[in-house]
Every structure is written in structure tokens, then in C-alpha cells.
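Sequence in, structure out. Go.
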Amino acid sequence: MGTLRIYFTADDLGRVTLAAAPDPLWEVVLSRFRLRERPRPAFRLWVGDLRSRPERVARMREGAQLLDVLAPMSPYWPDFLTPPEASNGLDSGLESFLSTPRDRLSDELARLALHRRLPGWVSSVAAGDAGMMIRVAAAMRAYHDAAIAPYHSLIGTAVAADRAQRARDLLEGGTEGLFDGMAPLMRWRYPALDVTFGHDCELHLLGRGLRLVPSYFCQRVPVTLADPGLPPVLIYPIGQKYRWERAVDGRSVEALLGRTRAAVLRNLSTSATTSELARTLEISPASASRHATVLRDAGLIVTARDGPAVLHTITPLGKALLDGRILDRTT
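Output:
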């Protein structure tokens, strides 16, 4: 894990904006990442429902296959897939994608080729072939319509709750209060904002400001554009508790977490080490450690080293899930 260090000028502090909704093309790319992974508990409601609907899976198949090539889970994928115009809606974003200059397509795909071997059809995209570009845009639209649009309520409610908290932080504490509210993902020390990131890099805003965009499908760390010359944007994962508020509605803990993982969570009503969990539940220490990692990533437990041992403790969010309570969104 690395750090993205974003440098602000005095002008930039007054040009920090918070998007009203997720960016549809960023959500397309990031949701495909989530589907490639083993489903994490907070996304299981979405994944399970989607996979139970074969007609939706069929509609999104070509888009998923294209995204697996153009947006791999690697340190780089092309920025032209997520143009800033998509903040005005899917139609605007896809129109901008279709008008991407040929030299930019070629340059960004050449950079992608440094990270992985690309199939022959990508050369048509790099050349700006109109038919191929239209095909990619149509496939991305079909993917969005099948995998994201039907879950507008699930996604929209969670994102709105998170954004309401960020807006309160901004209103009460200014830009510094907004960034402080996003800890531990971000740490503000003028003139720089340190953001937990996939690798070490820097971004100088130079008076352009920064647009913060909440994302339902962004997980663990924020993401941004690879080209620092493009309009600065930071896509950040919404708070875990806002995903859980909808996920627990009408669903048992076992259905969301799995029987063993739910048992691990219940056994952390008092703190326990990995070895203690393994003995109590009669599972291997390696299995106990894997389950604890997933629960920690979901914000349900915290882990700290206690001498030679690793100690796990349930969080208020984890307790609320077990108790079937809805968290107070102001906390």
C-alpha cells in the first residue's frame, strides 16, 4: 500500500467540491472489479441478486469481457474510460468516450500494454475505429443498465447517507473538517493531503481544485486518474456502515457473512487472538486469520498486535449488525 500526496495552493482550498452522486462510468469500472473478487460481505446483497438473474448477466457479458481487457485489476488502466463529462450522466460520459482523440487512445493503450498482453482487437480501439468504439460504448451501456441501474435505490440511499455526513463535515469544519472526517483514508497537513493509495505518487493541483466523488463500488482505498494533467478527481469509497444499513435489511447475518464468519464475529463479543478463535471454533489458524481479514476489511472488527499475538475486537458496526440495529447516521 502506498500514498497519494496531493499538493494544494491557497486557491485550491476554495475549489474543493463534493459530487452529488456517483460517476456512472467509474461505477461501471469499479463494479467489475468487485465481481472479479470473492464477494465481500457488504456487497453480497448486490452480487447475489445480480447472479440470480440470468437475463441481466447475459446483457452485461460483453461489457464485462471488454472491461476485463481495457480495465484490468492492475496499477494502470486508461483514463479515457472515465471521462469527467460522465459527472453529467451516462450519456454525456459515453459521448465523451466516443470523441476521444486518436492520439490519446493510442498513447493510453500503449501504456496499458506495458502491464499486460493485449488481444488484437484493441488495436482497433487504439486507432479510433468508429465501429469498434461504438461497440465498446454500447457494451458499457448494456453493462450499466444490467449491473448498476436496477440497484439505484440500494446504491443511491447508501451514497446519499455518506454524502450527507461529508456535507455536514464541510459545513461545520470547512475543507479541513471534510478531510478529517475521511480519516484514516486521508490525512490533512497543509499544504498536502495524504491519501491511502495503491502506490506512491504525487498530484499538484496548481489552482485547479479537487472534485471528490463518492462511490458505492470503490473498496478500501480511493482511486484517481493516471494522467495528472487531467481535471483532478478523487473517487473515494463510501463509509462501510452505509452499505451495511441496506445490506442487513431483511437478511440474516449468516446469509451475508457465511456461517463460519458469522461465528467468528459472534465470538468477538470479547477480544480474542487468532489462535483463540481457531481453538474455539475448531478451525485452522490460517482459516481464522482469513475470516478475520474479511471482517476487518468490512469494518466489523479491528485488529491490533498484542506482543507476539494478534488481537481482534468487534467494532460498534459489528455489534450493530449482530444486534440487527441500524446505526445512527450522525455517528
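Check: Confidence is low (pLDDT under 50) at residues 326-331. The chain is about 50% helix and 15% strand.
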